Request: fold
Amino acid sequence: MRKKDNTAVAIFVGAVVFLALEVAVYYGLVTWLVPTDPEVEEQGGSIVRNWNKVMYFILIYMGVLVGALLFASSQVPRSYRRHVLFWFYLSLPTLLVLLVLAFS
Reply:
């Protein structure tokens, strides 16, 4: 019973930290990358106007994500590392959702 309670608490704490990290990274990147000068937007000049921004968004997001994975996996006991990997794998498809939200 005790181990089941610890696992439930670990999943809850992981969910809270996961959501907090995703929201912080999203709003940080959106406020830093997405705003553009209107004159630059009017000029166009490329097939995909936000290509550089999308690439920077992906690279910075993945850098923060891998850094958080390394930090979290070094801080938690070995028995909870599978939870850290679960949240890491869950954040990969979340990247696609964040890209659609940020650049649509």
About this structure: The CA atoms of residues 59 and 67 lie 12 Å apart. The radius of gyration is 18 Å. The mean pLDDT is 82.
